[in-house]
Design a protein that fits this description.
alpha/beta, 3 domains, 7 strands
């Protein structure tokens, strides 16, 4: 008995008889292309048989009110190049093929290649050249734009989807992206919100662009999250505090605002010679991993004594932002560890920067959002649940018992 999915080797040998070159097997008129055409046409014929309810030439078809009516030709592009396909028709014109739909000119999965290349930051022209080089398929820039523009509808649906009622932790991060606005290139901030769900999964809540950060902008973002179903956030981790605490107090008055430790460390290391980065990062860890706020203040003073002569800006930065850094010292270690973990933000930052770095400037805001959304979609598919989440959740339940969702008790 043949194993499922294993082809008859004698049949394969028969098909390959006399074909000894790459061209004769995988070339323009090679075996693979001929097989693809034959299999697709046979499958389409089987679809029509199912639709009509009787085999070709069978008596059941007489007087049935519908019958086969020849075929129409269509050109189909795909990994195999371009083939001329004969698509069967019925007299009532009620047959709607599923394998190769009406109006479809590209084999399913080909659009995914375009989107995958676009998500990696390749321009329309670069994608066109890549597809022609790799698959010998000519794809116009207009077609590539049409495929990627279709993503915008998906983005709109994703950006307005309903969210959970409670997110124990939400991170808000920003990237600077060059965009063309009114004929000139300018830097614009793109903000990303990542929520940690009650189950400990990371979820990107949305993308927003703004020329200016401030209370009004943050109020708009938080109001949108609230309108999409978010009723409570226990801890909000942010990069910078400009206007944010006021906006949080308006929409989520019980939320603790925490300056993101990841960003504090990253900003600190910008001042440091690369050879000493590990040493400075290790000493900074003694500050934010202190057991109490008093111990953290002592470690900050020790850090200043050791590094101020060479890097005075670092301890000054931490003292200036101390009020935003210290809230999380009120939480137990299990929660603090998740608050200052770098994985969620750093992996997101790296993927997004990789996707946008190849572009000089995006022609429009939509073009930037498309690339970032596709990059996020690829990244989210690889995310795992937060480590140590169950232990942290128990502490969340004790600290915020009256706000904790009932079904998680």
């Amino acid at each position: 008995m043949k194993r499922e999915g294993k082809f008859d080797e004698q049949l394969i040998d028969e098909l390959l008889k006399g074909r000894t070159t790459v061209e004769s097997i995988a070339g323009e008129n090679g075996l693979l292309k001929q097989l693809t055409k034959a299999i697709l046409e046979r499958a389409l014929a089987a679809e029509l048989t199912t639709h009509l309810g009787y085999e070709k030439h069978e008596a059941e078809g007489r007087g049935s009110g519908n019958s086969r009516n020849g075929a129409s030709s269509k050109r189909l592009k795909g990994d195999f190049g371009t083939i001329e396909l004969e698509v069967p028709r019925d007299r009532a014109s009620s047959f709607e093929p599923q394998l190769v739909a009406k109006g479809q000119t590209r084999w399913a999965g080909f659009d995914d290649k375009i989107l995958s290349l676009y998500a990696r930051g390749m321009t329309t022209r670069e994608i066109q050249g890549h597809l022609e080089e790799m698959y010998q398929v000519e794809v116009s820039p207009a077609l590539i734009s049409a495929v990627t523009d279709a993503v915008l509808d998906e983005v709109k649906a994703w950006q307005s989807r309903a969210l959970d009622k409670v997110y124990p932790i939400v991170y808000l991060d920003a990237l600077v992206v060059k965009m063309r606005t009114e004929g000139r290139v300018e830097n614009r901030a793109v903000y990303v919100a990542i929520g940690i769900t009650m189950e400990g999964n990371k979820e990107v809540l949305g993308l927003w662009t703004s020329a200016n950060e401030g209370a009004k902008f943050w109020l708009q973002v938080l109001t949108e999250l609230n309108n999409r179903g978010v009723k409570d956030i226990f801890i909000a981790c942010v990069d910078g505090l400009k206007g944010f605490p006021q906006a949080v107090a308006t929409v989520f008055p019980k939320t603790t605002v925490q300056l993101c430790i990841v960003h504090m460390v990253r900003a600190s290391l910008n001042y440091v010679n690369w050879k000493e980065r590990v040493a400075v990062a290790t000493d900074l860890k003694l500050i934010y991993r202190s057991s109490t706020e008093q111990e953290a203040e002592r470690q900050l003073a020790e850090f200043g004594l050791k590094w101020d002569k060479k890097y005075p800006s670092i301890s000054a930065l931490w003292r200036r932002n101390w009020q935003g850094i210290t809230p999380f010292f009120q939480f137990p270690e299990q929660i603090r560890k998740i608050v200052y973990t770098t994985n969620a933000i750093e992996s997101l930052n790296m993927s997004l920067r990789k996707a946008i770095k190849t572009r000089g400037a995006f022609p429009t805001e939509d073009a930037a959002i498309k690339v970032m959304y596709l990059a996020l979609r690829n990244l989210a598919a690889k995310w795992n649940a937060v480590q140590g989440w169950k232990e942290a959740l128990n502490h969340f339940a004790m600290l915020w018992e009256e706000r904790f969702p009932q079904h998680h008790n």
